[in-house]
Amino acid sequence: MKKVLLTFLFMLPMLSFAQQTLSLEDCYTLANKNYPLFKQADLLQQKASLEIDALNKGKLPKMDINAQATYQSDVTGLPISLPNVTPLNKDQYRATFDVNQLLYNGGLIDANAKLKAAQTKTQQQQVEVNLYQIRTKINQFYFSVLLLQEQKTILLSKQAQLASKVNEVKSGVKFGAILPASEKVLEAENLKINQQLIGIQFEKKWLLENLSSLIFTTIEENTIFVQPKILNDFSNENNRPELKLFDFQKEQIENSKEIISKNNLPKINAFGQAGYGNPGLNMLDNSFQTFYMVGLKANWNVFDWNKSKTEKEALSVSAAIVSTEKETFLLNNKLQLQEMENEIYKTEEIIKSDVQIISLREDVVKSADAQLKNGVITSSEFLVEFTNLYEAKTNQKTHEIQLALAKANYQVVKGSPLPPEGGTN
Predict the structure, then answer these.
(1) pTM exceeds cut of 0.85
(2) Mean pLDDT of the chain
(3) Residues whose CB is less than 8 angstroms from the CB of residue 406 and which lie 6 or more positions away in sequence, other chains included
(4) Crossing angle for the helix pair 379-414 and 134-174, to the nearest 10 degrees
(5) Could you tell me which of 60, 211, 56 has the C-alpha nearest to residue 139?
(6) Dihedral, CA atoms, 117, 123, 128, 129, nearest 10 degrees?
(7) Considering just the CA atoms, what is the radius of gyration of the chain in Å?
(8) Which residues make Cβ contacts (< 8 Å) with residue 31, sequence separation at least 6?
């Protein structure tokens, strides 16, 4: 029991400092899963299944029950009187059971079902396009939080070194090597850092609330955001969901043309009728009778004044419009990618300079530190160089986050998935 207790006490600090992590890919997945628009894909599929099922009902027999009672001002009569033949009554009655069965319509029902499936694919892809556009907003919020996270780390490091320097200055003031005002200058800078940390805290809270709204998941304030490591992939492959949307739109147009062609094919139906009425089929028998009738019916529209041809030409124009929209999209997408490539290369070169600047600033701070200890310079002069160093470190982290954001946006514009976490730059 003591060993278990000791083990628990040993692990307690580890458990208390455990923090949740969140990756950019996690945000994409959560947005796709939880965003209200995502539900439309399943709803559209359900709607299409029901509509296709309703269309296929047209292949089943159509059955109707009809009844009527009429009174007319005159009836058909014979100009002569015949034995056993009575004139028709002016009040007449009829009840029938009618059955119609489609035998052939050129596959029009199947063509309509095919068109409905194509329309559903188009609508579902439009949902995918709308969901995909959320990624740019996610990137903006995610990397803004990531930047604040890095800035906070730098400020805490700066504050820790400043606290150490305050202790050194206090010792110098005590022995008369440094002026008393020097301590207050450093303490004022410490208060300034506290103000910056407060600003970061509130700005991060606002950003987390916005990101949480996009992914419909509560993000705790102590969540660690993982910086994605994205490869420079400048290949010509483009996987934007809009390209599939254009293809589905053209497929839908082709299916519409097929329906127009099948509308002009002959249609054959079998029908049957059974009834009871007065009179029946024998108009000379003025009594209630049962009767039936069966037959075939054919219909063929052999000339429609080129209506079908005109409708197909209109659809061809629609297909041409879709093609121009696709070409325009690809052109604008290419120009956008070229601009972003240039931004990525530029930021990479700036980061190389940041490394050199930090190295030089560190040397300057070391020299200023020695001068402060020897009373050659004041704490204010030291603080200038000290602040310049941490400003350079902040600039480097800012540029690194900007580079990561540019690469992530590049992948979004190109339609490429993010690599698994832990890849190389």
Answers:
(1) no
(2) 88
(3) 340, 343, 344, 347
(4) 170
(5) 211
(6) 130
(7) 41
(8) 131, 134, 135, 138, 214, 215, 216
